[in-house]
Amino acid sequence: MAELVPERADLVVLGGGSAGYAAALRGRQLGLEVVLVEEDLLGGTCLHRGCIPTKSLLHVAEVADQVREAAALGLVATVDGVGGVDGSALRAHRERVVGRLHRGLQALIAASGAVVVPGRGKLVAPGAVGVGDRTITAGNVLIATGAEPIVPAGVTLGDRIVTSDGALELPEVPGRAVIVGGNVIGLEIGSAWRSLGADVTVVEARERVLPDTDAALGAAVRRAFRRRGMVVRTGVAVTGVEASPTSAVVSLGDDTTLDADVVLVAVGRRPRTSALGLAEAGVRLLDSGHVATDERLATSAPGVFAGGDLVVGPQLAHRGFAHGVFVAEEIAGLAPMPVDDALVPRVTYGSPEVVSVGLTEDETRTAHGSATATTYDLAGNGRSLILGTSGHAVIVTRPDGQIAGVHLVGDRVSEQAGAALLMVAWESHAADVAVLPHAHPTQSEALGEAAMVLAGRPLHAHS
Ligand SMILES: Cc1cc2nc3c(=O)[nH]c(=O)nc-3n(C[C@H](O)[C@H](O)[C@H](O)COP(=O)(O)OP(=O)(O)OC[C@H]3O[C@@H](n4cnc5c(N)ncnc54)[C@H](O)[C@@H]3O)c2cc1C
Ligand SMILES: NC(=O)c1ccc[n+]([C@@H]2O[C@H](COP(=O)([O-])OP(=O)(O)OC[C@H]3O[C@@H](n4cnc5c(N)ncnc54)[C@H](O)[C@@H]3O)[C@@H](O)[C@H]2O)c1
């Protein structure tokens, strides 16, 4: 491979995850010579250890729930409920999905003409990247090495104490699981494990689960989890986790303990910025380890950009894609619009799902002086009743009537994230949405109905 490595490129990208490969693809479309340095597998966390494998697990979990509910819906099954989970078949399903997407991505990158250099890269100087004994000089460099799970001091990972990486490798679903951290990763994997038969306890140090989203969304998730037989403890921190050959013991700040077969540590992900030569090359890092950038993703070193999870903000694959595209266009001189974190949709998967785009009611009030919010209960939405889900949709408007935020909770509402994004990003007013005929029966009608209420012309809602 070494002889194929060019000595010079317009753009060298360090890391072939969501941000890095998007920059490579867009850079090639714009005629840049691109080198992509990746030490592991193209696709990064999202494809191999994140978005895709976890949603594959959650799909199996949803099927298990449906089988369990089948009798109540009038289906006479020969086996009553879910008899068990075949760990290897479950894994095979996930690997089929990931493998197919991985092959597709490799083909896309190859067809683009970007040169992929396998190995660990390092910034040698602002315009130079080292890989093994080679140095590639570059007009511009994008640092996109992502993030990794935080493991608190004193916690030793093993068969019984895992992060999301280890959770996906478990041979079987744990019998009793304790989840440390009640935010996105904890809730998604906890939800899947519950559906697949585990006894699940979630422990969140802050006052509520999903602490960074609208309070009503977290409260709805908590109620749904309780109905599903899960235990949710909030306002108490985990202070220690110890494993023995037969179990794991979790110590809490209120001096109680919990026993588990497996403990999932989901307390956040830290940027992977050490040992990359960044500080030495003049790239300023924040105390948190994130790379300091301006809104155009430029670092303190000339010609060096950063994108994806190592830039402060929501750690999401679609934000990474947007960063990568932005940096390629910036280098090509297209003067693109900076990526606005406020418009990055946030979705938590599981049962129920949560969608949040734009500002909450409180945030709108702070930013614009006042806010109007309408909540439409999914109890009035035919499709949601058919699917057997509860939940709600909220539209928040500013004083001038423009929609500032859209938030939903309920099974399958992730599919409404696109509509929510357009309503906020295209600066719609509730009256614009209220006149549009939303397809019946769909969950999208909940957004149309909420807009109708805000526009003063409710249909399936009490005025
Ligand atoms: C369990 C889990 C579930 C998730 N689910 C979702 C979801 O549903 N939706 C969503 O939007 N986001 C999700 N995320 C977050 C998403 O995976 C990340 O936001 C996204 O992968 C970030 O992209 P990135 O390019 O910044 O980094 P990464 O995808 O982490 O890519 C960085 C790449 O850099 C490589 N690398 C690191 N150092 C070097 C080096 N020195 N030299 C060469 N290569 C290097 C790594 O091998 C890696 O391939 C999830 C994350 C996890 C952990
Ligand atoms: N669907 C998605 O888009 C998706 C899915 C998974 C992950 N992700 C991304 O991955 C990143 C990491 O997710 P995460 O959930 O691990 O981290 P997070 O930082 O979002 O949340 C960690 C949670 O752990 C809690 N916590 C920390 N220490 C604790 C302790 N000692 N005891 C109890 N609780 C404690 C925190 O209060 C916080 O709520 C997120 O930024 C998220 O955006 C996204």
Please explain how this structure is put together.
- By secondary structure, this protein is an alpha/beta fold.
- It folds into 3 domains: 8-55 and 88-149 and 270-342, 3-Layer(bba) Sandwich (FAD/NAD(P)-binding domain), CATH 3.50.50.60; 161-267, FAD/NAD(P)-binding domain; 352-455, FAD/NAD-linked reductase, C-terminal dimerisation domain (Enolase-like, domain 1), CATH 3.30.390.30.
- The protein has 13 helices and 22 strands.
- It has helices at residues 18-29, 44-49, 51-69, 87-112, 164-167, 184-195, 215-227, 317-331, 361-368, 382-387, 417-425, 430-434, 445-454, and strands at 8-14, 34-38, 115-118, 121-125, 128-131, 134-143, 147-149, 161-162, 176-180, 199-204, 231-234, 238-243, 248-252, 257-260, 262-265, 269-271, 304-306, 346-348, 353-358, 372-377, 392-397, 403-410.
- The strands form 5 sheets. Strands 1, 2, 3, 4, 5, 6 and 17 form a 7-stranded mixed beta sheet that branches. A 5-stranded parallel beta sheet has the order 8-15-9-10-11. It has a 5-stranded antiparallel beta sheet with strand order 18-19-22-21-20, with helices on both faces.
- The model has no long low-confidence stretch (mean pLDDT 95).
- Bound molecules: flavin-adenine dinucleotide (FAD) and nicotinamide-adenine-dinucleotide.
- The site of nicotinamide-adenine-dinucleotide (NAD) has 25 residues, from helix 6, strand 10 and strand 18.
- Residues 180-186, 188, 203-206, 211, 237-238, 266-269, 314-316, 347-349 line the site of nicotinamide-adenine-dinucleotide.
